[in-house]
Design brief:
alpha+beta, three-stranded antiparallel sheet, 13 strands
């Protein structure tokens, strides 16, 4: 396994030489943050054990949402919030893909195109739900923007996880189109599970994206397909789909354990082949590997995951009432949503809790203290220096 910070320190000069004309301010900020994450160049924290009073100086994590080494706690907290919002219905994972002809435009106008992509995906599903005789109401959906394929190429698409259900607030009706399996505790969809026609979804989605981009003043390239690719498949009770969506939400597009080696200026990483389902590897120059990762750094402040309809945060009370009134017989009542759990305690080798005394010390201004053998929970860093 290779540390991403080590690769940035090694190949950043070559990257800047070859791709400087294409780097955005957000890319340079990501390079600066990820390249010093938990290294000797990062700001340090001074901590002391509450039991034996031993002191330790350790580097901060960068807290950048593209860093594979950070924000494990945020990722898990997000997943738990979404799991608490599950409703008793079969879930579908609907994937809206931007055509290849629009990728250059998407790269040049990322914020505009990504906003149009996510808005059109939700508006399409909402339109179909309102017009469906079995639903005839507002659906709930969680949309997550992904910009990469399995080989880390630039491939913008939106995954929407939504139950086959809708809420008609005016008539106070809750309708479901596809029920879960009748076996107690089953997460499998009922036989004949079907939400919407993927061909019809693709046609309406294409029209809505075109309209949004034209309204934004962008000129569309020639040769766009009439019907765009939309995939719609049942995913049971939704838990597995939520875990998949949360995998790349806070921790970048690749795990450090999938960066296998760096030799002779070439970096090899592992991915899962979409056709065979088996692991495969890709090897390319170090600067090109870094450029692949930087392509997926989103514009500053852009929200990658969004809740819509009755799953929006403003509808918490209605959602809670639905969960109580339509609870699955096999499922115990779930507690009401609470605030995020506290971060795991950072413990000393003696078992005592480490207390942060000072933060963001410059490496050259650290006090003379020996770092003891402490247990620092990598999956839930007690302090993250900054949020990007």
């Amino acid at each position: 396994m290779m540390r991403l910070a080590e690769l940035i320190q090694q190949f950043e000069p070559e990257l800047l030489q070859r791709y400087a004309h294409r780097l955005l301010p957000s890319h340079r900020q990501a390079l600066s943050a990820l390249g010093t994450c938990r290294t000797r160049f990062a700001p340090h924290m001074l901590a002391a054990c509450a039991g034996c009073h031993t002191q330790a100086c350790l580097p901060h994590s960068c807290g950048h949402r593209a860093c594979p080494h950070c924000q494990h706690f945020e990722s898990e907290a997000w997943l738990q919030r979404q799991l608490k919002a599950l409703v008793p219905a079969t879930y579908f994972l609907v994937t809206f893909t931007l055509p290849a002809q629009l990728r250059t435009l998407a790269w040049s106008h990322q914020r505009v195109v990504y906003e149009a992509l996510m808005g059109a995906a939700w508006n399409t599903l909402n339109t179909f739900s309102q017009n469906d005789p079995k639903l005839a109401g507002t659906p709930g959906a969680l949309a997550v923007l992904h910009t990469h394929n399995r080989q880390l190429g630039f491939h913008p698409h939106v995954h929407v996880c939504m139950p086959a259900a809708a809420l008609n607030a005016k008539e106070r009706l809750w309708r479901t189109k596809v029920e879960l399996g009748k076996t107690p505790g089953s997460a499998q969809p009922a036989r004949g599970g079907y939400l919407f026609s993927h061909k019809a979804l693709g046609k309406v989605f294409a029209a809505k994206v075109r309209a949004a981009l034209a309204q934004a003043g962008l000129t569309l390239p020639a040769g766009l397909p009439e019907r765009w690719v939309v995939d719609c498949k049942a995913v049971g009770d939704g838990q597995a789909a939520l875990r998949y969506l949360g995998r790349y939400l806070y921790r970048g597009v690749i795990s450090e354990r999938d960066i296998l080696r760096c030799k002779d200026g070439m970096v090899t990483f592992r991915y899962r082949d979409a056709q065979s389902g088996k692991s495969a590897t890709r090897t390319l120059p170090g600067a090109d590997f870094l450029w692949l990762l930087l392509q997926h750094v989103l514009p500053k402040g852009f929200v990658r995951a969004r809740n819509f309809g009755f799953l929006h945060h403003n509808n918490r009370r209605s959602l809670r009432l639905l969960q109580v009134l339509h609870l699955r017989p096999s499922a115990p009542p779930s507690p009401p949503p609470t605030t995020s759990p506290p971060r795991p305690v950072w413990r000393c080798a003696c078992g005592g809790a480490m207390v942060i005394l000072r933060r963001r010390l410059r490496p050259d201004a650290m006090p003379a203290c020996a770092a003891p053998q402490t247990e620092r929970p990598d999956k839930a860093d007690p302090v993250e220096a900054s949020k990007h």
